[in-house]
Every structure is written in C-alpha cells, then in structure tokens.
C-alpha cells in the first residue's frame, strides 16, 4: 500500500519553484507575488491563508495578506480587488472563501482579473479549462493532478469516480480527468447528493481511482472500495474532540484505516490533497508572473 504523501509531492513542486525564484532574484528581478484577501475570522480560513503565506515565503514568492472585518461591504471588497488588478507588482489574487452571506461570491470571483485569477475560479478560466485551453486550473483539482503525476498514477482508460460536483473541486476534477491531457483520458463517473446512495456505492465499488469531495467525514468505507483502487480524499472537516489539543480533529471524507486495508494507494488527511492545493496555487502564481508581458 502506497501512502500518497502530500508532503513529499508538494516538496518536489516547491523545490522546482524555489530554483526558479532563486534564479530570478540572482538576475535582479522581482519574484512572483500573491495577494490574499481574508474576510472575517473563520478559524479554518485563517489557517488556510496563513499556510498559503508561509508557503510563499518558503518558495521565495512575495505575498501580502489583506484583512477585512466580516462587516466589510461588497463595494469595499470590490474596490480592493480593482486596486490589486491594477497593481503591476501583484501577479496573483485570491479571496479566501467562504465569504459572509451579504457578499455575492459570484461578483467577487468575476471581479478578479482573469490573468491574476490563480485560484482558477473566474468563468473565463473555467471556460478555457473546459475547452482544454491553457489556463489556470482550479488549485485543488490542479493539486490532485500534480499528486497523480508525482506518483506516476495512470489515468488513461481508467474508471475514475468523482463524488461531489462543486465548482471548486468535483466538477472541474471530472472535466480535467475526462479531457485529452496528461492525467486525463479517463472514463469518468460523477456522483452527487441526488445520486441514490446505492448507486454511489455501486459506482465507487467499480472505481479504479476514487476521488471524494463531499465534506462528510468518513463517507467512504471499506465496502465501497474496489480492491487495489487509488483513493484520493479531498475532504477536510473539523470534528470536535475534547481530547485533542485544539478541541477538534481534521477528518477526511474517507475512513483511512479501512481504506488502507483494500486500496493500493491512499491520500492521508491531513497531509494529502490540502498540501497539493497550495502547490497548485503556487504554480498558478508563477504562471501568472510568467504570463506578463512586462517584468519589474
Ligand atoms: P461543497 O459542499 O461545495 O460540495 C459538496 C458536494 O458533495 C456537492 O456537490 C454535493 O452534491 C456532494 N454531496 C453531498 N452529499 C452527498 C452524498 N450523500 N452523496 C454524494 N454526493 C454528495 O464542498 P466542496 O467545496 O467541494 O468541498 C468538499 C470537501 O473538500 C470539504 O470537506 C472541503 O473542506 C474539502 N476541500 C478541501 C480542499 C483541499 O485543499 N484539500 C479544498 C477545497 C475543499
């Protein structure tokens, strides 16, 4: 059984990026810069953004963290995005989701200039991705592709079952894996909340590669896994646990202890796809930097 260790795979991606930023610095050029916007003080969002900033530091990227209270108006947030769009020293912009209810996610996502949309959520970039054009791939599905590439997991002709159809994980994941591309050419089935449970179980049991992004801790149990399958667990849920130091534990969407008894390869949670998402984000930020027609 192979543990698809996100620490190992993301370290390889980051080492290559660090070489690039070192070369840029030696040539007297500025390095890529990511601007992250965080609204409010949601614990999980704070952790994710802090980790993104830390990873920028580790790879020689510049970063800025822009914080707003959760009573920020939509207009104020959009004005800040416009300012960052116009700032030539900023290559990538990300707005950590979820946003407070009074702010329209769609407007915010569309306000980010497509050339700086390093999370890959802008409809223009999603459209380019669907057509197989060069673009920013949404960071989490990109991270999964990088994971599959790192561990040489063949997808061509394989039956991949994706459980979950969100715009940020399941749907782009299914489109990418069915596309004509490296880490693509798979036969993809997608299941979601309206797929009858028995059908989801039946599909999962036939999956050569099972990708789970539902946000329900330990949704996938041993009986749903085909012997020898590759299991990619995207889920991250904080589950209260009084015995844990922080008062909670991070759980994936797959029962890991059961999965390792049947699968040939499994991503751990934490330490799996989450780390690869950051690797995908950094690669997109480097791509945004390289795509500019000017360099400072
Ligand atoms: P979401 O809530 O937007 O989507 C969940 C999806 O699961 C929906 O498409 C829904 O149809 C499907 N679903 C719900 N119940 C189901 C059921 N019983 N059977 C089949 N499908 C069902 O969530 P999301 O944003 O896609 O995130 C999913 C999980 O992945 C969450 O735990 C989230 O925290 C995690 N996540 C992790 C990363 C990472 O970097 N590892 C990134 C994004 C999200």
Please provide a brief summary of the model.
The chain has 296 residues and is of the alpha/beta class.
User: At CATH's second level, what is the architecture of the largest domain?
Assistant: 3-Layer(aba) Sandwich
Structural class: alpha/beta
Largest beta-sheet characterization = 6 strands, parallel
Instruction: Describe the strand arrangement of the main beta sheet, using strand numbers.
Output: 1-11-8-7-5-6
**Bound ions, cofactors and other small molecules, one mention each:** nicotinamide-adenine-dinucleotide
What's the CATH class label of the largest domain? Alpha Beta
Number of structural domains: 2
Give the name of the CATH superfamily of the largest domain.
Answer: NAD(P)-binding Rossmann-like Domain
Poorly predicted ranges: none
- Kindly state the percentage of residues in helix: 25-40%
Alpha plus pi helix count: 10
Q: Radius of gyration from the CA trace?
A: 19 Å
CA(first)-CA(last) distance: 47 Å
Mean pLDDT score: 97
Coarse morphology: globular
For the secondary structure, the number of strands is: 11
Portion in beta strands: 15-25%
Encode the helix/strand succession as letters.
EHEHEHEHHHEHEHEEEEHEH
CATH names the topology of the largest domain as: Rossmann fold
